[in-house]
Amino acid sequence: MSKIKKITKMQLFLPIFSMLLVMLVNVIYDLASGNAPFGFFSISTQVTSSGNTILYGRLIDILNRGSEVAILAIGMTLVVSASAGTDISVGSVMSLSGGMCCMLLAGYGVTNVSEYACPLWVGIGAGILVAVVCGLFNGFLVAYLNIQPMVATLILWSAGRAIGLLLCNSAIVYVRVPSFQVFGSYVGFLPTPILIAAVCVTIMALLLKFTALGTFVQSVGINKKAARISGFNSSKIILMCYAICGLCAGIAGITATSRIYSADTNNIGLNMELDAILAVALGGNSLGGGKFNLAGSIIGAYTIQAITTTLYALGVSSAQAPVFKAIVVILIVVIQAEPVRAYFKKMSAKKAAAKEV
């Protein structure tokens, strides 16, 4: 019994439990509908029209489609921890990054190309650089002007997508070049977005493990004034977190743009800032700042995508899916809330006391 209590008290228990619960719904649905048992977990190979053999299955689809949210969740976790606020501009920054990249690759005013107007690395580098600048802008407002994070990032939330439209001349810019499309398609048999997300998570995990970055961020998030007295430059740390968040938004924007080989600035990253914030919350991280768990945020990101994929598998339309998705997310967040956890701890303590009597 003590082992079970130890497991349930682990920080990653509830995020993992939530993910398993969503998967269990799929298993029950497969059994009830007469499909192959555990068909949700089946992974097979499929030959594409170009003759390539790729992995296919609902799990692969969740990992693939959830990659952008997972990348955004990395930066959002640091921002929430350091500033006790959220960056609601990441979706618009994704759109701006993709728009800048495609505009340079196609040439200003051109909407459909099959060859580059400038080198690929210039377009991708410029797109990511713009996103980092956006992150620095948000960080400057929060760290040095002491503007509330949601208010500060509201500027780019509304302006970022509009700037992207101006860069693309209010049109969808198509870049139909295989070397650009590969970032959103496949490398061998694996979807490229999965590999990009894995690289981003690995690099950040190594930075947090082998440097003092995690300690700095958490110290500032717990008590900004105390961290400054202890010798930490709180403003620079918060600025750096927002820059990293912008970097993640830029990478996610390039990935999303490459997936559809075009800069659709009206729709790229639309409402993805909400999924990124929810991923942090579902991962068991406090939105009030302080201690964080990156692994929990990543699990939360893929849990959100698993919910979406499950709803589509159950026959829920794309228009109705957000309603059911919101209900599920609310239930998961309520279960992880401190008052609810404290209530169940109190009840278990009462039961234990009653047994002793």
The overall average pLDDT, rounded, is 88
The secondary structure category is: mainly alpha
Radius of gyration: 22 Å
Strand content: 5-15%
Oligomeric state of shown chains: single chain
N-to-C SSE series?
HHEEHHHEHHEHEEHHHHEHHHH
Q: Overall 3D geometry?
A: globular
- Enumerate the strands of the largest sheet in spatial order, edge to edge or round the barrel: 3-4-7
Q: Low-confidence segments, ≥5 residues, pLDDT <50?
A: none
**What is the end-to-end distance?**
19 Å
Helical proportion, percent range: 55-70%
The main pleated sheet reads as: 3 strands, mixed
SS summary, helix count: 16
How many E-type strands?
7
Descriptive report:
With 357 residues, the protein is mainly alpha-helical. It contains 16 helices and 7 strands. It has a 3-stranded mixed beta sheet with strand order 3-4-7. Strands 1-2 form a two-stranded antiparallel sheet. Strand 1 and strand 2 form a beta hairpin. The longest helix is centred in the last third of the chain and has 26 residues. The chain is globular, with a radius of gyration of 22 Å. It starts with a helix and ends with a helix. The model has no long low-confidence stretch (mean pLDDT 88).
Put the structure in a nutshell.
Helices cover 68% and strands 5% of the residues. It is mainly alpha-helical. The protein has a three-stranded mixed β-sheet with strand order 3-4-7.
